[in-house]
Specification:
This protein is α/β, with parallel strands linked by helices. It contains 13 helices and 15 strands. The model has no long low-confidence stretch (mean pLDDT 96). The protein binds pyridoxal-5'-phosphate. Pyridoxal-5'-phosphate binds next to α4 and α8. Its cofactor is pyridoxal 5'-phosphate.
Length: 388
Protein backbone atom coordinates (compact mmCIF):
# COMPACT_ATOMS: atom_id res chain seq x y z
CA UNK A 1 0.00 0.00 0.00
CA UNK A 2 1.25 3.48 -0.88
CA UNK A 3 1.60 6.54 1.31
CA UNK A 4 -1.55 7.47 3.18
CA UNK A 5 -2.55 9.44 6.22
CA UNK A 6 -5.81 9.66 8.13
CA UNK A 7 -8.29 12.40 7.23
CA UNK A 8 -7.68 15.69 9.00
CA UNK A 9 -10.91 15.33 10.97
CA UNK A 10 -9.60 12.24 12.78
CA UNK A 11 -5.95 13.23 13.20
CA UNK A 12 -5.06 13.28 16.88
CA UNK A 13 -8.15 11.26 17.86
CA UNK A 14 -5.86 8.18 18.43
CA UNK A 15 -5.51 6.16 21.60
CA UNK A 16 -6.25 7.84 24.85
CA UNK A 17 -5.24 7.77 28.49
CA UNK A 18 -8.20 5.37 29.01
CA UNK A 19 -6.52 2.73 26.86
CA UNK A 20 -3.24 3.23 28.73
CA UNK A 21 -4.86 2.98 32.17
CA UNK A 22 -7.01 -0.04 31.26
CA UNK A 23 -3.87 -1.79 29.99
CA UNK A 24 -2.03 -0.82 33.18
CA UNK A 25 -4.86 -2.31 35.28
CA UNK A 26 -4.70 -5.55 33.29
CA UNK A 27 -0.90 -5.80 33.55
CA UNK A 28 -0.63 -5.01 37.27
CA UNK A 29 -3.85 -6.67 38.49
CA UNK A 30 -4.77 -3.39 40.21
CA UNK A 31 -8.39 -2.65 41.21
CA UNK A 32 -9.73 -0.76 38.21
CA UNK A 33 -11.57 2.39 39.30
CA UNK A 34 -10.67 3.95 35.95
CA UNK A 35 -13.26 3.35 33.27
CA UNK A 36 -16.93 3.65 34.18
CA UNK A 37 -17.82 0.06 33.34
CA UNK A 38 -20.35 -1.16 35.92
CA UNK A 39 -19.70 -4.36 37.86
CA UNK A 40 -23.27 -4.30 39.17
CA UNK A 41 -26.23 -6.59 38.39
CA UNK A 42 -29.00 -5.85 35.90
CA UNK A 43 -32.73 -6.45 36.45
CA UNK A 44 -33.33 -10.22 36.08
CA UNK A 45 -36.63 -9.77 34.21
CA UNK A 46 -34.92 -7.52 31.67
CA UNK A 47 -32.27 -10.16 30.93
CA UNK A 48 -34.91 -12.88 30.67
CA UNK A 49 -37.03 -10.78 28.30
CA UNK A 50 -34.04 -10.24 26.00
CA UNK A 51 -33.25 -13.96 25.94
CA UNK A 52 -36.88 -14.74 25.11
CA UNK A 53 -37.02 -12.12 22.36
CA UNK A 54 -33.87 -13.58 20.78
CA UNK A 55 -35.21 -17.14 20.95
CA UNK A 56 -38.59 -16.04 19.61
CA UNK A 57 -36.75 -14.92 16.48
CA UNK A 58 -37.11 -11.16 16.86
CA UNK A 59 -33.67 -10.56 15.42
CA UNK A 60 -34.20 -8.50 12.27
CA UNK A 61 -34.01 -4.74 11.69
CA UNK A 62 -36.41 -2.75 13.83
CA UNK A 63 -37.90 0.42 12.28
CA UNK A 64 -35.12 3.00 11.77
CA UNK A 65 -36.73 5.30 14.34
CA UNK A 66 -36.93 2.48 16.90
CA UNK A 67 -39.25 -0.28 18.07
CA UNK A 68 -42.66 1.47 18.48
CA UNK A 69 -43.32 0.11 22.00
CA UNK A 70 -39.96 1.50 23.18
CA UNK A 71 -40.71 4.93 21.69
CA UNK A 72 -44.04 4.87 23.53
CA UNK A 73 -42.35 3.81 26.79
CA UNK A 74 -39.78 6.61 26.44
CA UNK A 75 -42.53 9.19 25.80
CA UNK A 76 -44.47 7.98 28.86
CA UNK A 77 -41.29 8.17 30.94
CA UNK A 78 -40.65 11.81 29.94
CA UNK A 79 -44.25 12.78 30.71
CA UNK A 80 -44.31 10.97 34.05
CA UNK A 81 -40.96 12.30 35.28
CA UNK A 82 -40.63 15.74 33.68
CA UNK A 83 -44.14 16.67 32.54
CA UNK A 84 -42.85 16.83 28.95
CA UNK A 85 -45.17 15.56 26.24
CA UNK A 86 -43.43 13.98 23.23
CA UNK A 87 -45.23 12.14 20.42
CA UNK A 88 -43.78 8.60 20.15
CA UNK A 89 -44.12 8.98 16.39
CA UNK A 90 -41.82 11.80 15.26
CA UNK A 91 -40.57 13.22 18.55
CA UNK A 92 -38.75 10.14 19.88
CA UNK A 93 -35.85 8.43 18.12
CA UNK A 94 -34.08 5.27 19.34
CA UNK A 95 -30.30 5.32 18.76
CA UNK A 96 -27.29 3.04 19.13
CA UNK A 97 -26.53 4.32 22.60
CA UNK A 98 -26.28 7.92 23.74
CA UNK A 99 -22.98 8.07 21.84
CA UNK A 100 -24.66 7.76 18.45
CA UNK A 101 -27.34 10.22 19.54
CA UNK A 102 -24.66 12.81 20.34
CA UNK A 103 -22.83 12.21 17.05
CA UNK A 104 -26.04 12.32 14.99
CA UNK A 105 -27.12 15.56 16.67
CA UNK A 106 -23.82 17.37 16.15
CA UNK A 107 -23.49 16.11 12.56
CA UNK A 108 -27.05 17.29 11.91
CA UNK A 109 -26.61 20.83 13.25
CA UNK A 110 -22.96 21.81 12.72
CA UNK A 111 -21.11 22.91 9.60
CA UNK A 112 -17.32 23.20 9.31
CA UNK A 113 -16.16 26.27 11.21
CA UNK A 114 -19.10 26.24 13.63
CA UNK A 115 -18.60 26.17 17.38
CA UNK A 116 -20.11 23.88 19.99
CA UNK A 117 -20.12 24.92 23.65
CA UNK A 118 -19.76 22.43 26.47
CA UNK A 119 -18.78 22.75 30.10
CA UNK A 120 -15.20 21.83 30.82
CA UNK A 121 -14.34 19.11 31.71
CA UNK A 122 -16.68 17.07 29.53
CA UNK A 123 -17.38 13.58 28.23
CA UNK A 124 -14.87 12.80 25.49
CA UNK A 125 -17.49 11.96 22.84
CA UNK A 126 -18.49 15.65 22.59
CA UNK A 127 -15.24 17.08 21.19
CA UNK A 128 -14.83 13.99 18.99
CA UNK A 129 -18.31 14.32 17.47
CA UNK A 130 -17.92 18.09 17.04
CA UNK A 131 -14.70 17.45 15.20
CA UNK A 132 -16.26 14.85 12.88
CA UNK A 133 -18.76 17.53 11.85
CA UNK A 134 -15.93 20.02 11.19
CA UNK A 135 -16.93 22.14 14.17
CA UNK A 136 -14.79 23.02 17.19
CA UNK A 137 -15.78 22.35 20.76
CA UNK A 138 -15.23 25.33 23.05
CA UNK A 139 -14.96 24.42 26.74
CA UNK A 140 -16.44 26.72 29.38
CA UNK A 141 -14.81 25.76 32.69
CA UNK A 142 -16.90 24.73 35.67
CA UNK A 143 -15.40 26.44 38.69
CA UNK A 144 -14.34 24.80 41.94
CA UNK A 145 -16.38 26.16 44.83
CA UNK A 146 -15.78 24.55 48.24
CA UNK A 147 -16.11 20.81 47.70
CA UNK A 148 -18.13 21.16 44.47
CA UNK A 149 -18.11 22.71 41.01
CA UNK A 150 -20.36 25.52 39.80
CA UNK A 151 -21.43 27.30 36.64
CA UNK A 152 -19.87 30.65 35.79
CA UNK A 153 -22.71 32.23 33.77
CA UNK A 154 -20.56 35.21 32.73
CA UNK A 155 -17.93 32.87 31.28
CA UNK A 156 -20.68 31.03 29.37
CA UNK A 157 -22.08 34.25 27.96
CA UNK A 158 -18.61 35.44 26.98
CA UNK A 159 -17.90 32.17 25.13
CA UNK A 160 -20.80 32.63 22.68
CA UNK A 161 -19.72 33.86 19.23
CA UNK A 162 -21.62 34.32 15.94
CA UNK A 163 -20.41 30.80 15.02
CA UNK A 164 -21.89 29.09 18.08
CA UNK A 165 -24.64 26.68 17.02
CA UNK A 166 -25.10 24.16 19.82
CA UNK A 167 -24.62 23.95 23.56
CA UNK A 168 -24.03 20.46 24.90
CA UNK A 169 -25.15 20.16 28.51
CA UNK A 170 -24.55 17.09 30.65
CA UNK A 171 -26.51 16.76 33.86
CA UNK A 172 -25.92 14.77 36.02
CA UNK A 173 -22.35 15.37 34.98
CA UNK A 174 -19.54 13.03 34.01
CA UNK A 175 -16.79 13.36 35.22
CA UNK A 176 -17.67 15.84 38.01
CA UNK A 177 -20.63 14.08 39.69
CA UNK A 178 -22.46 17.38 39.63
CA UNK A 179 -26.21 17.97 39.28
CA UNK A 180 -26.94 21.38 37.74
CA UNK A 181 -29.22 23.39 40.05
CA UNK A 182 -32.48 25.08 39.01
CA UNK A 183 -30.74 28.47 39.12
CA UNK A 184 -27.87 27.24 36.93
CA UNK A 185 -30.28 25.77 34.37
CA UNK A 186 -32.21 29.07 34.31
CA UNK A 187 -28.99 30.98 33.62
CA UNK A 188 -27.98 28.55 30.85
CA UNK A 189 -31.47 28.72 29.30
CA UNK A 190 -31.27 32.54 29.27
CA UNK A 191 -28.10 32.42 27.18
CA UNK A 192 -29.53 29.80 24.81
CA UNK A 193 -32.76 31.71 24.20
CA UNK A 194 -30.91 34.99 23.77
CA UNK A 195 -28.55 33.54 21.12
CA UNK A 196 -30.98 31.02 19.56
CA UNK A 197 -28.75 28.08 20.42
CA UNK A 198 -29.80 24.47 20.03
CA UNK A 199 -29.31 22.53 23.27
CA UNK A 200 -28.26 18.89 23.31
CA UNK A 201 -28.67 17.66 26.88
CA UNK A 202 -27.05 14.36 27.85
CA UNK A 203 -29.01 12.91 30.76
CA UNK A 204 -27.75 9.31 30.86
CA UNK A 205 -27.36 9.54 34.68
CA UNK A 206 -30.90 10.94 35.17
CA UNK A 207 -31.84 8.16 37.61
CA UNK A 208 -28.57 8.06 39.57
CA UNK A 209 -28.83 11.03 41.92
CA UNK A 210 -27.86 10.46 45.60
CA UNK A 211 -28.33 13.75 47.44
CA UNK A 212 -30.86 16.57 47.72
CA UNK A 213 -30.49 18.41 44.40
CA UNK A 214 -32.94 16.62 42.08
CA UNK A 215 -32.23 16.06 38.41
CA UNK A 216 -34.09 18.54 36.23
CA UNK A 217 -34.12 18.80 32.47
CA UNK A 218 -33.51 22.14 30.80
CA UNK A 219 -36.11 21.17 28.16
CA UNK A 220 -38.86 21.81 30.73
CA UNK A 221 -37.96 25.51 31.12
CA UNK A 222 -39.92 28.21 29.26
CA UNK A 223 -39.00 28.48 25.58
CA UNK A 224 -36.60 25.53 25.77
CA UNK A 225 -38.58 22.52 24.54
CA UNK A 226 -38.56 23.85 20.99
CA UNK A 227 -34.75 24.10 20.88
CA UNK A 228 -33.69 21.09 22.97
CA UNK A 229 -32.87 17.46 22.28
CA UNK A 230 -32.84 15.30 25.41
CA UNK A 231 -30.55 12.28 25.15
CA UNK A 232 -30.61 9.29 27.47
CA UNK A 233 -29.71 5.62 27.39
CA UNK A 234 -30.36 2.25 29.01
CA UNK A 235 -26.66 1.58 29.65
CA UNK A 236 -26.14 3.38 32.96
CA UNK A 237 -29.69 3.00 34.28
CA UNK A 238 -29.80 -0.81 33.97
CA UNK A 239 -26.07 -1.70 34.04
CA UNK A 240 -26.19 -2.83 30.41
CA UNK A 241 -23.53 -0.62 28.85
CA UNK A 242 -22.79 -3.24 26.18
CA UNK A 243 -26.28 -3.07 24.70
CA UNK A 244 -25.95 0.44 23.31
CA UNK A 245 -29.61 1.41 23.29
CA UNK A 246 -30.20 5.13 23.67
CA UNK A 247 -32.84 7.65 22.67
CA UNK A 248 -33.48 11.25 21.71
CA UNK A 249 -36.61 13.29 22.53
CA UNK A 250 -37.30 16.68 21.04
CA UNK A 251 -39.41 18.73 18.67
CA UNK A 252 -40.12 16.92 15.38
CA UNK A 253 -37.89 19.06 13.09
CA UNK A 254 -34.81 18.62 15.29
CA UNK A 255 -35.46 14.90 15.81
CA UNK A 256 -35.94 14.45 12.05
CA UNK A 257 -32.60 16.16 11.35
CA UNK A 258 -30.75 13.90 13.80
CA UNK A 259 -32.69 10.91 12.44
CA UNK A 260 -31.60 11.60 8.89
CA UNK A 261 -27.97 11.26 10.02
CA UNK A 262 -28.61 8.30 12.32
CA UNK A 263 -30.21 6.45 9.41
CA UNK A 264 -26.85 6.28 7.64
CA UNK A 265 -24.64 5.79 10.69
CA UNK A 266 -26.25 2.53 11.86
CA UNK A 267 -29.80 2.59 10.41
CA UNK A 268 -31.02 0.68 13.48
CA UNK A 269 -29.82 -1.84 16.04
CA UNK A 270 -30.66 -4.08 18.98
CA UNK A 271 -34.18 -5.36 18.21
CA UNK A 272 -34.43 -7.83 21.15
CA UNK A 273 -32.95 -5.26 23.55
CA UNK A 274 -35.40 -2.61 22.40
CA UNK A 275 -38.30 -5.00 22.91
CA UNK A 276 -37.24 -5.93 26.43
CA UNK A 277 -36.49 -2.33 27.42
CA UNK A 278 -39.94 -1.23 26.25
CA UNK A 279 -41.35 -3.46 28.99
CA UNK A 280 -38.74 -2.50 31.65
CA UNK A 281 -38.91 1.29 31.35
CA UNK A 282 -42.38 1.43 32.90
CA UNK A 283 -41.00 0.21 36.23
CA UNK A 284 -37.64 1.99 36.11
CA UNK A 285 -38.35 3.98 39.28
CA UNK A 286 -38.45 0.89 41.54
CA UNK A 287 -35.31 -0.53 39.98
CA UNK A 288 -33.47 2.79 40.12
CA UNK A 289 -34.26 3.30 43.82
CA UNK A 290 -32.43 0.05 44.59
CA UNK A 291 -29.49 0.83 42.32
CA UNK A 292 -29.15 4.30 43.84
CA UNK A 293 -28.89 2.72 47.29
CA UNK A 294 -26.01 0.49 46.14
CA UNK A 295 -24.18 3.32 44.41
CA UNK A 296 -24.68 5.72 47.33
CA UNK A 297 -23.09 3.18 49.68
CA UNK A 298 -20.13 2.84 47.29
CA UNK A 299 -19.83 6.59 46.92
CA UNK A 300 -19.72 7.04 50.70
CA UNK A 301 -17.17 4.24 51.14
CA UNK A 302 -14.91 5.70 48.48
CA UNK A 303 -15.27 9.29 49.62
CA UNK A 304 -14.54 8.41 53.28
CA UNK A 305 -11.71 6.13 52.18
CA UNK A 306 -10.05 8.82 50.08
CA UNK A 307 -10.21 11.18 53.07
CA UNK A 308 -8.66 8.54 55.30
CA UNK A 309 -5.97 8.02 52.71
CA UNK A 310 -5.15 11.72 52.98
CA UNK A 311 -6.50 12.73 49.56
CA UNK A 312 -9.16 15.42 49.16
CA UNK A 313 -12.40 14.15 47.55
CA UNK A 314 -14.96 16.53 46.10
CA UNK A 315 -18.71 16.07 46.49
CA UNK A 316 -20.25 13.57 44.04
CA UNK A 317 -24.01 14.06 44.02
CA UNK A 318 -24.75 11.73 41.12
CA UNK A 319 -23.45 9.36 38.48
CA UNK A 320 -20.50 7.01 38.64
CA UNK A 321 -17.55 9.25 39.51
CA UNK A 322 -15.80 11.09 42.27
CA UNK A 323 -13.05 13.70 41.92
CA UNK A 324 -10.08 13.90 44.24
CA UNK A 325 -7.32 16.46 44.70
CA UNK A 326 -4.04 14.51 44.81
CA UNK A 327 -1.80 17.39 45.97
CA UNK A 328 -1.84 16.19 49.62
CA UNK A 329 0.22 13.20 48.43
CA UNK A 330 2.80 15.56 46.97
CA UNK A 331 1.71 15.34 43.32
CA UNK A 332 0.80 18.38 41.25
CA UNK A 333 0.09 16.30 38.18
CA UNK A 334 -2.75 13.74 37.99
CA UNK A 335 -1.17 11.95 35.02
CA UNK A 336 1.96 11.08 37.03
CA UNK A 337 -0.19 10.15 40.03
CA UNK A 338 -2.29 7.77 37.89
CA UNK A 339 0.77 6.19 36.25
CA UNK A 340 2.31 5.51 39.70
CA UNK A 341 -0.85 4.55 41.60
CA UNK A 342 -1.08 0.88 40.46
CA UNK A 343 2.46 0.25 41.76
CA UNK A 344 1.99 2.30 44.92
CA UNK A 345 -1.55 1.25 45.92
CA UNK A 346 -2.83 -1.35 43.46
CA UNK A 347 -5.54 1.01 42.19
CA UNK A 348 -6.20 2.52 38.77
CA UNK A 349 -7.81 5.94 38.29
CA UNK A 350 -8.01 8.45 35.41
CA UNK A 351 -6.47 11.95 35.38
CA UNK A 352 -9.32 14.42 34.98
CA UNK A 353 -7.17 16.60 32.71
CA UNK A 354 -8.06 14.05 29.96
CA UNK A 355 -11.60 15.49 29.97
CA UNK A 356 -10.63 19.15 29.54
CA UNK A 357 -10.69 20.99 26.22
CA UNK A 358 -9.42 24.35 27.45
CA UNK A 359 -5.94 25.32 28.57
CA UNK A 360 -6.55 25.80 32.28
CA UNK A 361 -7.30 22.27 33.44
CA UNK A 362 -6.60 21.78 37.15
CA UNK A 363 -3.83 19.20 36.66
CA UNK A 364 -4.15 17.78 40.19
CA UNK A 365 -7.66 16.32 39.78
CA UNK A 366 -8.13 12.59 39.42
CA UNK A 367 -11.34 10.67 38.68
CA UNK A 368 -12.26 7.50 40.59
CA UNK A 369 -15.31 5.45 39.55
CA UNK A 370 -17.52 3.69 42.11
CA UNK A 371 -19.91 1.72 39.83
CA UNK A 372 -18.16 -1.41 41.07
CA UNK A 373 -18.90 -4.30 43.40
CA UNK A 374 -18.76 -3.14 47.02
CA UNK A 375 -15.79 -5.45 47.70
CA UNK A 376 -13.83 -3.85 44.84
CA UNK A 377 -14.39 -0.43 46.38
CA UNK A 378 -13.49 -1.76 49.86
CA UNK A 379 -10.30 -3.35 48.58
CA UNK A 380 -9.31 -0.19 46.73
CA UNK A 381 -9.93 1.92 49.81
CA UNK A 382 -7.92 -0.39 52.11
CA UNK A 383 -5.00 -0.31 49.69
CA UNK A 384 -5.13 3.47 49.32
CA UNK A 385 -5.16 3.95 53.09
CA UNK A 386 -2.19 1.59 53.45
CA UNK A 387 -0.26 3.39 50.70
CA UNK A 388 -0.75 6.77 52.31
C1 LIG B 1 -21.48 6.50 29.38
C2 LIG B 1 -21.87 7.84 28.85
C3 LIG B 1 -22.43 7.97 27.56
C4 LIG B 1 -22.51 6.81 26.60
O1 LIG B 1 -23.74 6.21 26.59
P1 LIG B 1 -23.99 4.95 25.64
O2 LIG B 1 -25.44 4.74 25.74
O3 LIG B 1 -23.18 3.81 26.16
O4 LIG B 1 -23.54 5.32 24.26
C5 LIG B 1 -22.84 9.23 27.15
N1 LIG B 1 -22.69 10.30 27.95
C6 LIG B 1 -22.16 10.21 29.17
C7 LIG B 1 -22.02 11.44 30.00
C8 LIG B 1 -21.70 8.99 29.66
O5 LIG B 1 -21.13 8.91 30.87
Amino acid sequence: MGEWSPAARVRGVGTSIFTEMTELARRTGAVNLGQGVPELASPATLLKDVAEAVLAGNNQYPPATGFPALRTAVAEHQLRRYGLDYRPDGEVLVTTGATEAIAAALLAFCDPGDEVLAFDPCYDAYPAAARLSGATLVGVPLEADGDGFVLNADALRAAVTPRTRVLVLNTPHNPMGKVFTAAELDAIADVCREHSLIVVTDEVYEHLVYDETPHRTIAALPGMRERTLIISSAGKTFNVTGWKIGWICGPAPLVAAAGSVKQFLTYASGTPYQEALARMLGSVEEWAAELRGTLRTNRDLLSDGLKQAGLRPYRAEAGYFLQADVRPWGYTDGVTFCRELPERAGVVAIPTSAFYQGQDAPSWLVRFSFCKREESVRTAVEQLVRAR
